[in-house]
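Our collaborator T.R. sent over the components below with a one-line note: 'Predict the complex.' Nothing else. No constraints on interfaces, no templates requested, no preferences about which chain binds where. So this is a plain run: every listed entity goes in together, and whatever single assembly comes back becomes the starting point for the next discussion.
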Amino acid sequence: MARLHEYQGKALLAQKAVPIPQGRAVSTPDEAREIALEIGAPVVVKIQAWVTGRAGLGGIRFAETSDEAAQAAADMLGMRVGGFTVDKVMVEEKLSVEREFYAGVIVSDRERAPVVMFSSVGGTGIEEIARRHPDAVASVVVDVEHGLQGYQARNLVRRTGIHGRLQRDLAGLLVKLYDVARTWEARAAEINPLVLTTDGKPVAADCRITVDDYAVFRHKDLGITFARELDRPPTELEHIAYAVEEGDYRGTFYFIQMVDDFQKGEGVIGFHGAGGGGSMMSMDAVINQGFRIANFVDTSGNPPASKVYRAARIILSQGPIDGYFGSGSGVASQEQFHSARGLVKAFLEEPLTVPAVIRLGGNAEDKAVEILEQVNGHVPAPVEGYKKDDTPHFCAQRLKALAESYAPPDEKPAGRRKPDVQQPYTFETVTGGTVTYDHAICVTCESKACVKECVPQILLLNEGDCPVLNITPEEAKKGRCIECLACDVACYFHGAGGGYVDLPIPGLEEYRRQRQG
Amino acid sequence: MAILIDETKRVIVQGITGREGRARAKLMKEYGTHIVGGVTPGRGGQEVEGLPVFDTVEEAWENLGPIDVSVLFIPAPLVRSAALEAIDAGVKLLVIVPDRVPIYDVLEIVKAADNAGTKFVGPNTLGVLSPGKGVLGMIGGRAASAQAWFFPGPVGICSRSGGITSSMTYYLAQAGIGATTLVAVGGDAIVGLPLPGVVRLFQDDPETKAIVMFGEIGTSQEEQVADLIEQGQVTKPLVAYIGGKGAKGGTRFSHAGAIIEGGRGTREGKVARLKEVGAHVVENFGDIPAVTKQVLQEIGAL
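Returned assembly:
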């Protein structure tokens, strides 16, 4: 996660010599007691969560003794805030506060540069401060080549009416804060409040740092395993989805869960977008029809069919959705049959028991819709495919009509499964998948559709009239097999059923079992 | 006329020997873009699609003469260096296609570009296309698709999303309305030529009679466009749609720029601000062609 917790941010501040209170993050009441003893009470105990107004939620408490600190920790650990469970609290020395300030570095899209802000009033959010005390807030645009200079910082603090030694000390701290932001490539680094203690020292009492998702690869020291901005820690399903994206550089797969607790019939649907703007516009269209969306997904940038398949399986592993809506910009530059095959395979295996409307407009849309609609009659629910001349508004209306008229089967039939094979011919794919042709069945196949449909043309028929690679298995595994799923889908509909592509999604089966149990 | 690209601009591709660079150089050429060569360090002397490859941009310039535009198909971590190279060599327009370019790298490119008087589109852009004249990047996919989908006309089109740029242009074309230029400014929080910059270029382009813009949550680009209208710097009619009704604060919606931070960049705020200054804000994406047609008829441009 590219957003750091208070304790993680403070560790970075300390590395650049920004004064922070004595203390540590802990995950048990006993540890809290220990730290409190070590520091010497009184202490403050704070939940580690990305919410504002922690005090109002009972997430900040002062403790006069080490036992009180342990009790506070016991009360806070396991608390539910902002949709997740608190697993760490910070135990810190209680500062004796003379005054509070605000200090922040934010990369501004308006200035297209880092902006350093300082306010002689702290505590609440900077927007609130700026509204209430406009004269107390000053900012300076930083030249990214030279960094924040001491004189700029001093003038910045001066403009809020602070002079002399305090001005010099605060300016020095701002230069260090900018250094933190620049070193770890933070989109935002804020200290609020920045406390002036009664003995005249500025100390960072709280800290919020968001590291640029795209720069995380240069900062392995941060140990960020989920470089995505969310307002809460990632869910288990989001972790599963992120691992899919991490393991496959081809195209983009973005998955965010929007709601978790919902029931059948509440109009919550699975959403599968394509392209940043297209996804957002399609999401609007479906919300305008009165639906809510369980998740936001974007598969774009010409992803392979396998990635779209995995995305669809993950979408369908959520709670009891009432429909499936797929739509992008509508005029895609990529060839759309890849997405169609990925969806078809997922729908067959599930099998799909909610109506689906998929808008596949763009290059090769006719073929894409044809491939998609083959699935009708093979799954319990109806699937409709649309093209670039069908608006998202119309497609969302179609989903509404289908959702209203559709009656799910009493019992969910079994979906398509990996077959037991007698005479397997197999090779592996680039993302850990396995392609299997059961030559005992293939020999009886009349269509040989797999060989004809293979997009990269890496299959041929051997002397026994069965499909085999015309490249080495190593080449296939390196990525020459692009996981287009053409052989898999073509075999199911037009072949003898001897072909199957197995594409594991680590953790998904286990997640689904837990969910059902 | 058009903005940023037409048939006269001399274009190179940085990263031309890569998978994407090679494929896109061919498609751009097929569409009519005047591509003169390419650059890949260590590959000087080779040829790609009949185009000469050089080791550096400076060398390309010395051999090919002045270069107007460089299109970058370079892995994200190497973009900063490649962009600075092109700026240093004197190229005045860059199109940075890749996504995931670190934000401080982009800030450094902004600085160097401003110092040199260079413009850049992107990063994370599908590119720029002037119907019938030329394309930079990958808008439209196959040249045949791009030729079938887009034709010249009076509207300037811009969006942070590449797919949406194509689809708005296509739907307008279906309604009989052509475009001067379509610009996908890029989905990142910091881009070289954001929406207000593009809108200014359209304002200065005599052939552009109206502007169609797709905005989305996050950043202040749409608000800045509203400021330009209010200040009288943009007087051409503007039709806008703002996406992101279902978005929630603090969460990024695939585009790095599409995040509501600290209550800034909300859809409601953008819609209200644009309406306040007299822009034509549509609620349904599908209403864009009809409203644009009406606007053009009102000013006698259709």
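Summary for T.R.: Chain A has a mean pLDDT of 94.
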